[in-house]
Structure formats: C-alpha cells, structure tokens
C-alpha cells in the first residue's frame, strides 16, 4: 500500500508447499486492501447517505422575506423531501436488502428500467438515477464499496415525449383566481403580495 518492496517467506515440508503457502499469503494480503470495511446492505448505506445531506434551513430576514441559511454545500428542503420519497417508495423496496458490494451496473440498469410502466415514470427514473449515483459515491468515499461507481455506466434511458395540452377556459379562470388570491388571506406572514404574477398569467 505504501509502495515499498518487502521480502516475505513461508516454510513448509516441501518446496512446492512452501511456494503455494507464500502465493496464498500474498493473495490474502492483496485482497485485504480491496475489501469493504463493512458488509452491510444497500438500504443501510442509503439511510446513512440521506442523513448526511442535511437540507438548508429556511429563515426570514429583517424585511420578512424567506431565504436559505448557509445554502452552500446543502440542498433545498423540497429536494431532500423528493429524494426521501423516491428512496422510500422505490430504492429501498427494490434494492434495500442487497449487500452493497453486490450492486453492479446491470443491477442499477435493470432497477431503473423497472420504474417505467407503459412509458410513464420517467421523472422517477431521473431522480432515482441521481439518488443511486450519490448513494454509491457515498459508499465509495466511506470504503463500503471498492469498485468504480456502477451507475456511471448505466445506458441513457429514453423518455416518451409528451404532447403539450392547452388549458380550457374553466381551468384558465381557476388558475387566474388562485393567483389573485394567493397569500391574500389576513395574518399571512411575509411581504405583501403584488399583481406581478397575476399580470404575467
């Protein structure tokens, strides 16, 4: 591991047995540096990863506007909630019981493809792939996985293009009413609403 050449020896009743014992000892020594420090499940690693990415907290400044506290290196709460939901609904049931060291590119590819049914579920695939890649990166950084990140070699998964749908008049009027009434209730904290959003709509 430190690049220094050393001399080792093994003794046995015959020369051949001594050579075999020495080769076996060398192989065992080499494998020691390539084995994960723990043999745990993918689900446990996923839970450790999720607890390590604490979302940034939302605070209200002196003007009553919401801002993110120390957002650098952290994700938004909405993103964290989205990650947690996809992990709980799909990744843990699908891969959670597998040993982390048994996860391969074929495992990841088959799992991600299973999230689409009749062309639906592409957003779950996209988010699931992001989460899966980050979990495996976490495992590598903490010596829980000794190979390259298997998610990086997953084929690009095709998505069905959705045809845009125009709103009908009742839906459009409902949206306009919702925008006009947004945050207009008495006692709602924060800055007073303006007509900018309703003008755009």
Description:
This protein is 47% helix and 4% strand. By secondary structure, it is mostly helical. The protein has a two-stranded antiparallel sheet with strand order 1-2. Helix 2 runs antiparallel to helix 3, helix 2 (42-52) packs across helix 5 (122-141) and helix 3 (77-95) crosses helix 5. The longest helix has 20 residues, at 122-141. The mean pLDDT is 83.
Largest beta-sheet characterization = 2 strands, antiparallel
Structural class given helices, strands, pairing? mainly alpha
Unreliable parts: none
Question: Shape, please?
Answer: elongated
Query: How would you write the strand order of the largest sheet?
Result: 1-2
On the 0-100 scale, what is the average pLDDT?
83
Number of strands: 2
Element-by-element helix/strand order: HHEEHHHHH
Oligomer: single chain
User: Any idea what the radius of gyration is?
Assistant: 27 Å
Helix tally? 7
- State the helical fraction: 40-55%
Question: Roughly how many Å apart are the termini?
Answer: 64 Å
Approximate strand percentage: under 5%
Question: TL;DR?
Answer:
By secondary structure, this protein is mostly helical. It has helices at residues 15-32, 42-52, 77-95, 105-113, 122-141, 169-181, 196-200; strands spanning 57-60, 66-69.
What are the defining features of this structure?
201 residues, mainly alpha, two-stranded antiparallel ribbon, elongated
What is this structure's SSE topology?
Layout: H1 15-32, H2 42-52, E1 57-60, E2 66-69, H3 77-95, H4 105-113, H5 122-141, H6 169-181, H7 196-200
Antiparallel strand pairs: 1-2
Helix pairs in contact: 2-3, 2-5, 3-5
